[in-house]
């Protein structure tokens, strides 16, 4: 049964990453900021690698890049209200700004999506008019690779027989155990 839960979680994540309409398209990504304050934001799941890394896009000038460079540890939270499944990931993030994986994802950005990475000013900078954001020819595209080492799975049920499990990566093997919900 544990393996079924693990496979179900990754199947749903792959479906979400493929662009299909799924609640797991969106993830809350938490990193550590200055003075060990937790910073959270919603990111879009863009892909999953063969070794189960989660991929997200970002502007390389964003504050999360500074935070990740200082401390690469992160948590990710996915929730699907339809199935009432929650996935919490713990791991580290790698920042890609070139290379083959980066290039493959960079080539997927077109049309209005380019505007997410070509602002003249960095994300979060004050502006006077949100309808006249200045743009440049330079793309500040970054690919975040979240390498999980732990996954907690929680399935809520109407009859209160919730299912909770933990999966930990140890020596390239995912160890599995049920947890009290």
Brief summary:
With 181 residues, this protein is of the alpha+beta class.
Structural overview:
By secondary structure, the protein is α+β, with helices and mostly antiparallel strands. Strands 1, 2, 3, 4, 5, 6, 7, 8 and 9 form a nine-stranded antiparallel sheet that branches. Strand 7 and strand 8 form a beta hairpin. It is elongated and about 55 Å long. The chain starts with a helix and ends with a strand. 22% of the residues are buried. The model has no long low-confidence stretch (mean pLDDT 95).
Taking Cα atoms only, what radius of gyration do you get, to the nearest Å? 18 Å
**Largest sheet at a glance?**
9 strands, antiparallel
Helix/strand-derived class? alpha+beta
Our estimate of the beta-strand percent is 35-45%
From the spread of the alpha carbons, the general shape counts as: elongated
Binned, the helix content reads 10-25%
Note poorly predicted spans.
none
Summarize model confidence as the mean pLDDT: 95
Total DSSP E strands: 9
What string gives the helices and strands in order?
HEEEEHEEHEEE
- The N- and C-terminal alpha carbons lie at a distance of 16 Å
The helix tally amounts to 3
Describe the SSE topology.
Elements: H1 2-17, E1 26-32, E2 38-44, E3 47-48, E4 54-59, H2 63-70, E5 73-80, E6 85-96, H3 100-106, E7 141-155, E8 163-170, E9 173-178
Keywords:
181 residues; single chain; alpha+beta
């Amino acid at each position: 049964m544990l393996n079924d839960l693990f496979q179900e979680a990754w199947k749903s994540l792959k479906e979400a990453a493929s662009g299909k309409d799924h609640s797991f398209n969106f993830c809350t990504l938490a990193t550590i900021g200055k003075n060990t304050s937790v910073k959270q934001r919603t990111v879009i799941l863009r892909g999953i690698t063969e070794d189960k890394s989660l991929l997200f896009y970002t502007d390389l000038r964003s504050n999360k890049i500074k935070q990740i460079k200082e401390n690469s540890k992160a948590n990710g939270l996915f929730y699907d209200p339809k199935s009432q499944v929650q996935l919490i990931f713990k791991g580290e993030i790698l920042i890609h700004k070139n290379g083959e994986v980066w290039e493959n994802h960079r080539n997927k950005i077109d049309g209005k999506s380019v505007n997410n990475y070509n602002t003249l000013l960095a994300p979060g900078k004050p502006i006077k008019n949100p309808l006249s954001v200045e743009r440049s020819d330079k793309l500040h595209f970054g690919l975040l690779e979240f390498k999980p080492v732990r996954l907690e799975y929680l399935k809520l049920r109407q009859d209160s027989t919730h299912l909770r499990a933990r999966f930990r990566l140890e020596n390239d093997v995912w160890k599995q155990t049920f947890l009290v919900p």
